[in-house]
Amino acid sequence: MATAKKAPAKTAAPAKRAPSAAFMKPMTPSPALAAVIGNKPMPRTEVTKKVWEYIKAHNLQDAANKRNINADAKLKEIFKKPQVTMFEMTKLISAHLS
User: Fold this and answer.
1) Would you kindly state where each structural domain of the chain is located, as residue ranges?
2) Which segments carry the region annotation Disordered (predicted)?
């Protein structure tokens, strides 16, 4: 007795949620952070994007472990140490936003 094969049920793609209002609120960077990303207020998401642009433009990702960021003089003022992980980075940057 042969059984009929059913096509897999199609599931709808999950609806994209709007970003949290807290993430979209413009934040003012400290003078040390402003030296890297500029001094105009911007949302946290944009701050992180700008810092990554700076890191990639100055080739600051560790070659052996891409999760580590090697700080240059400007980033050392923000991070307070020569190397941080990408996960530490966001925490340290948030201390420079008001």
Assistant:
1) 24-94
2) 1-24
